[in-house]
Amino acid sequence: MNIPDDLRYSVDHEWVRIDGTRVRVGITDYAQDALGDIVFVQLPVVGSEVAVGGPLGEVESTKSVSEIYAPLAGTVTAVNKALADGPEKINQDPYGDGWICEVELAPGTDPGTLLDPAAYGELTAG
């Protein structure tokens, strides 16, 4: 299982790549593997505000439908429109072309509250 060192992780298996006050969000390699072949992604609406742990979208696979939860609070500024025609990008490249959305962090939001790679590795190992 791939757990990049430059990302932070939620206990719900989302990852964030931090770029100042903006983060890119996706689901982890662990999550996409557990879901199986992804066939549909419901993306959030650009401009919508999200709360920590609130719904961000859905991922539908051949096995199930799973919620995507916001790992941090903020406003959705971009979505990965390529997933509409190619949801399998999440399976193929969860940390690259398979990203879900970008969020401008709400004032006072601390990405440091998320799991570091070692802690996420421990979470998924047990």
How are helices and strands ordered from N to C? EEEHEEEEEHHEH
* Domain module tally: 1
**Percentage of β-strand residues:** 25-35%
Number of helix segments?
4
Report the uncertain regions: none
Shape: globular
**Content-based structural category:** alpha+beta
CATH architecture: Beta Barrel
In total, the number of strands is 9
The Rg value, from CA coordinates, equals 13 Å
CATH topology: OB fold (Dihydrolipoamide Acetyltransferase, E2P)
Tell me the CATH superfamily.
RNA polymerase II/Efflux pump adaptor protein, barrel-sandwich hybrid domain
Major sheet summary line: 6 strands, antiparallel
What top-tier CATH class fits best? Mainly Beta
Cα distance spanning the termini: 13 Å
In round numbers, the mean pLDDT is 95
Describe the structure.
The chain contains four helices and nine strands; from the N terminus they run E-E-E-H-E-E-E-E-E-H-H-E-H. The strands form two sheets. A six-stranded antiparallel β-sheet has the order 1-2-3-9-8-5. A three-stranded antiparallel β-sheet has the order 4-6-7. The longest helix is centred in the C-terminal third of the chain and has 9 residues, at 117-125. The chain has 126 residues and is of the alpha+beta class. The chain is 19% helix and 35% strand. The chain has helices spanning 29-35, 82-85, 89-92, 117-125, and strands at 8-9, 14-19, 22-27, 38-42, 49-50, 55-61, 65-69, 74-79, 101-105. The chain has one domain (8-107): Beta Barrel (OB fold (Dihydrolipoamide Acetyltransferase, E2P)), CATH 2.40.50. The mean pLDDT is 95.
